[in-house]
Amino acid sequence: MEKLLRCRDFGVDCDFEACGETPEETFKTAVDHARAIHGLKDIPEGDLRRARARIQDAFCVPKGGYNPGGGAFY
Question: pTM of the predicted model, to two decimals?
């Protein structure tokens, strides 16, 4: 089963969903998005731990980063 992490899981008004085959792949996609779109260059270690803990099982279509509301891929 694939893994999913959403920006909304952190109270951010953003429809981005990071999906991957593994928690590591999903985490990397989410961090890349947070840095590129939300300008989070230095993410505190506590936030990174919370992100890893919030990754959940899901069926993701399409793979990778996805913004269901449209707009930029990241």
Answer: 0.77
| Structural domain that includes position 39 | 2-66
> Is residue 74 in some structural domain?
no
**Count of structural domains within the chain:** 1
Q: Is 26 exposed, middle or buried (0-12, 13-18, 19+ CB in 10 A)?
A: buried
Q: How far apart are CA 74 and CA 67, in angstroms?
A: 8
Show pLDDT as tens, one digit a residue, over the chain (74 residues): 899 999 998 888 998 999 999 999 999 999 999 999 999 888 889 989 999 999 999 988 665 565 555 554 44
